[in-house]
From TrEMBL:
Originating gene: mgtE
Any one of the GO CC terms: plasma membrane
Family matches, as Gene3D superfamilies: CBS-domain (3.10.580.10), MgtE N-terminal domain-like (1.25.60.10), SLC41 divalent cation transporters, integral membrane domain (1.10.357.20)
SUPFAM superfamilies, per database record: CBS-domain pair, MgtE membrane domain-like, MgtE N-terminal domain-like
Organism listed in the record: Staphylococcus argensis
InterPro entries the UniProt entry points to: CBS_dom, CBS_dom_sf, Mg_transptr_MgtE_intracell_dom, MgtE_N_sf, MgtE_transporter, SLC41_membr_dom, SLC41_membr_dom_sf
UniProt protein name: Magnesium transporter MgtE
UniProt topology in membrane: Multi-pass membrane protein
Family: Belongs to the SLC41A transporter family.
SMART domains listed in its UniProt record: CBS, MgtE_N
């Protein structure tokens, strides 16, 4: 079975034989390769291409047309820094034809990763109409509605008769990203309505587009953040959303496949920040590059941890009198950090899904603090009983249990409040990462623990 997995890519069943495809190319059996390769799904083609070495990729460019390569280039998921070397191996005319045959939004996504010199060269070699569309999209920021929209959509004037509209749809369909949603515009190209293909088909022939369209149009502004657009499309269950400028001119559309990519990208980004890393998807980085990306966070956390160490050192006298206090440091700091991280995950999730508004922020913080208090009381009582049974020191047990309760309550509150504050300041709340919250809670929990122990020292000795 292991040998089969070396040669085949399997997802519930055998999909394609990589070694056979490689052999066809190396043996120059072009017809056999084309029959096998072009019969695969474009996702499978992109997977094969991504896993191939430079020699095989070069042969693929030699035996496939730019139109055929463009089909699976739409599915590529390379790291940003991999695109420049890839296009270095391609003939400039060939590369420009590949990009020209891709949907404009996907072509722009790739061109945003290329050097300015390459982009200028590609645009010069492209068809003028395609180059004009791509140039317009390149001006928008990557993470905005304008950066992910496509200009390949179907639109009809409101004054178009239904009997003529189907003919117009048929003319525009070959180049459109989707034909199921049709947008109605006025003479000034302003978006005024929307209708589905079904609406058009069942409409009376003597009707006009303005008679069958819906005037209630939900759209995105070209400058909207892509995460906000994804949220809106999820709320309305859209398969496509129009993008307009500040004067409601229809500029493009965003389709569901692009939004799925955005949601995956945003989720990965939030997960990375919660873990205190920035390379969760970096599959091909060297160990040195991986360490270089993570070191800034780790160095920052090291200095923050020094505060905890200094704090504990300042209570050296307390520890020297009751050395057993040191045994419970990991429990109190660990539980405080754990409860804070749980609360952090809940808050970041609620913020990212738009469940939190100005009125509910206080309630969220209060609920999380209450949850932390109840959890702290339960864990504290259990810890008190364990210490009494094991060490027969009820005063010590009370100090440790009380400190754990307070630390978990404050830790949970911090995990909820810090993301809310960051969101208020227009800072990504995911920056309040798990390691950051844990370190902050370490400082607070140690201050509570040793402060309480010092206060009750006379009862301990």
């Amino acid at each position: 079975m292991a040998n089969e997995r070396d040669n085949k890519y399997i997802d519930e069943e055998e999909v394609y034989n990589k070694s056979l495809l490689d052999q066809h190319l190396l043996d120059n059996d072009i017809d056999a390769f084309r029959d096998e390769f072009l019969g695969m799904h474009t996702y499978e083609q992109s997977e094969y291409f991504e896993d191939s070495d430079d020699e095989i990729r070069q042969r693929i460019f030699e035996v496939l047309s730019p139109e055929e390569v463009a089909d699976f280039f739409e599915q590529l998921e390379f790291e940003e820094e991999e695109y420049d070397p890839l296009f270095d191996t391609m003939n400039a005319n060939y590369a420009s034809k590949v990009l020209e045959n891709m949907s404009s939004d996907n072509a722009v996504d790739i061109m945003n990763q290329l050097s300015k010199q390459k982009v200028a060269s590609m645009l010069t070699l492209m068809n003028k109409e395609d180059a004009k569309e791509i140039k317009a999209l390149l001006h928008y920021e990557e993470d905005t509605a304008g950066g992910i929209m496509t200009t390949e959509y179907i639109s009809l004037k409101v004054t178009t008769p239904v009997k003529e509209a189907l003919m117009h749809v048929k003319e525009q369909a070959p180049d459109a990203e989707t034909i199921y949603v049709i947008f109605a515009v006025n003479d000034h190209k302003q978006l005024v309505g929307v209708l589905s293909l079904r609406d058009l088909i069942v409409a009376e022939n003597d009707a006009y587009i303005e008679d069958v369209m819906s005037e209630r149009v939900v759209s995105a502004n070209v400058a909207d953040d892509q995460e906000d657009v994804a949220q809106k499309m999820r709320d309305y269950d859209f398969i496509a959303m129009p993008v307009v400028d500040y004067q409601d001119h229809l500029l493009g559309i965003i389709t569901i496949d692009d939004i799925l990519d955005v949601m995956d990208e945003e989720a990965s980004e939030d997960y990375s920040r919660l873990a205190g890393v920035s390379d969760v998807n970096a599959k091909h980085d060297s160990v040195f590059k991986t360490a270089g990306k993570r070191l800034p966070w780790l160095i920052t956390l090291t200095f923050l941890s020094m505060i905890t160490a200094t704090l504990i050192g300042s209570f050296e006298d307390t520890l020297s009198k009751v050395a057993l206090l040191g045994a419970f440091i990991p429990i109190i700091s660990g539980m405080s950090g754990n409860s804070g991280t749980q609360s952090l995950a809940v808050s970041v999730r609620k913020i990212s899904t738009g469940e939190i508004n100005e009125q509910s922020k206080f309630l969220v913080a209060l609920r999380e603090a209450g949850s932390g208090l109840i959890s702290g009381v339960v864990c504290g009582i259990l810890l008190i009983l364990c210490i009494i049974v094991l060490h027969r020191q009820p005063i010590l047990a009370t100090i440790v249990g009380g400190s754990l309760t307070a630390a978990m309550t404050v830790g949970t509150l911090m995990g909820a409040v810090i993301p809310l504050i960051m969101n208020k300041l227009n800072i990504d709340p995911a920056v309040a990462s798990g390691p950051f919250i844990t370190t902050i809670n370490d400082i607070i929990s140690m201050l509570i623990y040793f402060g309480l122990a010092t206060t009750l020292m006379s009862y301990l000795i």
